[in-house]
Amino acid sequence: MPTANTTPQDTTAATLTTEPSEVVAEPGHHVVVVGGGPGGYEAALVARRLGARVTVVERQGLGGAAVLTDVVPSKTLIATAEWLTIAESATELGIRSGTLGDATAPPASEARRHLVDLQAVNSRLVALAAAQSADIRARLEREGVTVLAGTGRLDGPSKVVVDGEDGSTTALDADTILLALGATPRTLPTAVPDGERILTWTQLYNLTELPERLIVVGSGVTGAEFAGAYQTLGSDVVLVSSRDRVLPGEDMDAAELLEGVFRARGMTVLSRSRAASAERTADGVAVTLADGRVVEGSHVLIAVGAVPSTRGIGLEEAGVRLTESGHVEVDKVSRTSVRGIYAAGDCTGVLPLASVAAMQGRTAMAHALGDAVAPLQLGTVAANIFTAPEIATVGYSEERLRSQGSRYVTTTLPLARNPRAKMHGMRDGFVKLFAHPEAGVVLGGVVVAPRASELVFPITLAVSHRLTVDDVANAFTVYPSLTGSIAEAARVLHGQLTGR
After folding, report:
1. CATH 3.30.930.10 given to domain 11-68+123-185+307-378
2. Parallel, antiparallel, or unpaired for β 159-164 and 146-154?
3. Four-way CATH pick for 389-498: 3.30.390.30, 3.30.230.70, 3.40.50.620, 1.20.1290.10
4. Under CATH, which number does the domain 198-304 receive?
5. Binding residue ranges for NAD(+)
6. pLDDT tens digit string along 139-183?
7. CB neighbour class for 97 (10 Å; exposed up to 12, middle 13-18, buried from 19)
8. Binding site membership for FAD: which residues?
9. Residue numbers belonging to the annotated binding site
10. Among 199, 208, 42, 17, which Cα is nearest to 116's?
11. 12-45 pLDDT tens trace
């Protein structure tokens, strides 16, 4: 599903020799990768570098759902909406429509009536996703990876059977198998998607006109991202949240700020309101809530999570242990319960991030083929929610520090105090850091700001390398810059630690 993270960096930009420079695998060692998403194609590239013979089985297209229906298209849609968010600041910055010197020209806020051609927007993002998928395929084939189109299933612990699109069946003997099966949108039996009015996030890109009134069921990352994007594009949006606030799993201060921004921009947020059903009406949809209220709109997006694509493909018969939720059980080097079978990505339920899937795939192949490997460290994973403003996090969250009784110091600096933010008319956002009260080590951080996904990297480095607040505070930052607030927050923490 669309998640609070970008896909791994475009692997087509790098080059690897066709003949691996460091051969580790035994001659003829065959790796079969079931699923061509970030976990799958990154694993395939590593396996080839280590000297294995590699076959990737993918039924949808290289890049998987992350590239074709989830991360790439959703973030492209959000990036398009971002331009309208920027345009909202035009009047404040002294930009007005009309001819230069025309004193009769109305303020830009009154004159601007941006017309969103949703069909053109969706055509562009679908084309971008297809191009990215083609680039990944070309890269894999250039490196000597065999790509088979079809659906893979296990026939025991060392054989993959591929049901081809043309009705053919191919059996592949494998020395190592990587399962990168992904996940699909979770649906409700009382709100069955029809692809026209009742939609999952993979079906939104088929729309040719902007929804007049979009009801979004689910206030997690996916629901919040699409609700914010469509509200900016011009739809009247109703966000139905079964919890007390939007983004219930995120930093409370960040979630409350974002919900305030949503409401200020005209979005209707229905908190503590669980959707019971959704059905078509004569000219739209009607969503019935658990308390009996009925919310009417033109379209409804069901964004209530995802389910792993693990059933009915021979996993349990081969001995691969699944959790109650259907996810594949893996350890920190991506091993499953069966020797020689590994798993990566959303099917494992570790973290639904493309970056984590890619790391799991790379780690799995390094371990399977005898290369140096380090266990997956989730404490250093940076994540981002692509709303406006964005919310980026890394390291320990404040909720986790509190729940486990950890001692910590924290500070929060409003973005509005930053000189660069003032220049751009940015008011909504903040930088928050957490540190150990004695050692001063940076434990985690939250950035709420436009392009927070770019700004969080210094904090990620600090958390990954156990830097102290003094290390961060004493590093040079550009003046003026938004990253200056990170260094300033560290200086404030230094004062708290030293009592100055």
Report:
1. no
2. antiparallel
3. 3.30.390.30
4. 3.50.50.60
5. 218-225, 305
6. 999 999 999 999 999 999 999 999 998 889 999 999 999 999 999
7. middle
8. 75, 152, 346
9. 75, 152, 218-225, 305, 346
10. 208
11. 333 333 344 466 777 889 999 999 999 999 999 9
